[in-house]
């Protein structure tokens, strides 16, 4: 089990939290303060780390806790979560202090998916009034009201879209924090991360690894580390191409040109491609023999 991050366009996927996860369920981010929160329902934990994965700590731990959904009040630095076993909503500070029950639920309640916006807490109650979306003001939590009723048991999740829901920005919002690839705010300053490759001596650029292992997987060529510092983040992104890779078998390389060579038994070719997956070139095509 991992927690990943990537650019919004899907590029630069990076494994951020690599160990100590059993069944993570829900994530929440405060980008201005640089915090990442997540719940682990197998451990009964809610954990917190900086956005670059450092300073990881358990802030809530209870036997039998099943915090399936969490949300943040970023203005007051509070976390809210729903417990799918106890069917209640609780809150605490970002440090796990001042823990309290804010909604105990009714006898028939099945509570999940809390979300904060416009000074209110919203949540789903699949058991109340034949499936409802509930709301209450954050400051007093009274009155509690159903803003939609009779939605049935198929309602599964909530999301609130509002320009005012996320205010401010961190230093990564200015010129990507000076980082060549991923910029992750650690609460005090930008932390530059390379999804593939390693951070250069200036702490911002990305450099290639000196050695790695490449292996073929029929329709892709992938890489893993040989260095002692094992990480699930590969030295290079997987090399794939519907046109040039159908059944890759043999591999060779030219380290000076940063180029891989491979045979493809389905295409009947020997091809080359740069380590970074660019510039596919057909080097040799085998003539197919046809029987009369």
Structure, described:
The chain is mainly beta and 292 residues long. It folds into three domains: 3-165, Neuraminidase; 171-207, Laminin (Ribbon), CATH 2.10.25.10; 212-285. The protein is built from no helices and 25 strands. It has strands at 3-5, 14-17, 24-30, 35-40, 45-50, 57-61, 67-73, 78-83, 88-93, 100-103, 111-117, 120-125, 132-137, 145-148, 182-185, 190-193, 198-199, 206-207, 212-216, 220-225, 239-240, 248-254, 259-264, 269-274, 281-285. The strands form eight sheets. The protein has a four-stranded antiparallel sheet with strand order 3-4-5-6, with no helix packed on it. The protein has a four-stranded antiparallel sheet with strand order 7-8-9-10, with no helix packed on it. 26% of the residues are buried.
């Amino acid at each position: 089990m991992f927690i990943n991050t990537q650019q919004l366009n899907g590029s630069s996927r990076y494994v951020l939290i690599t160990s100590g996860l059993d069944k993570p369920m829900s994530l929440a981010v405060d980008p201005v303060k640089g915090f990442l929160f997540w719940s682990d329902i197998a451990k009964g934990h809610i954990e917190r780390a900086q956005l670059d994965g450092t300073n990881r700590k358990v802030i809530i731990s209870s036997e039998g806790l099943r915090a399936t959904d969490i949300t943040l009040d970023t203005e007051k630095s509070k976390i809210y979560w729903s417990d799918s076993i106890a069917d209640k909503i609780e809150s605490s500070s970002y440090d796990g202090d001042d823990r309290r029950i804010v909604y105990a639920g009714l006898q028939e309640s099945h509570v999940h998916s809390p979300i904060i916006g416009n000074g209110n807490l919203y949540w789903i109650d699949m058991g109340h009034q034949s499936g409802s979306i509930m709301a209450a003001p954050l400051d007093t939590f009274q009155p509690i009201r159903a803003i939609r009723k009779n939605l049935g048991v198929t309602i599964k999740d909530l999301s609130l879209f509002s320009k005012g829901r996320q205010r401010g920005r961190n230093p990564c919002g200015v010129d990507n924090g000076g980082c060549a690839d991923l910029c992750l705010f650690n609460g005090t300053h930008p932390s530059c991360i390379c999804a593939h490759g390693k951070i250069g001596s200036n702490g911002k650029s990305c450099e290639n690894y000196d050695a790695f292992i490449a292996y073929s997987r029929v329709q892709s060529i992938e890489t893993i580390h040989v260095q002692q510092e094992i990480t699930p983040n590969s030295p290079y992104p997987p090399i794939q191409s519907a046109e040039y890779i159908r059944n890759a078998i043999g591999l060779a390389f030219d380290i000076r040109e940063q180029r891989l060579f491979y045979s493809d038994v389905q295409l009947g070719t020997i091809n080359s491609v740069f380590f970074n997956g660019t510039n596919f070139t057909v080097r040799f095509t085998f003539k197919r023999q046809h029987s009369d």
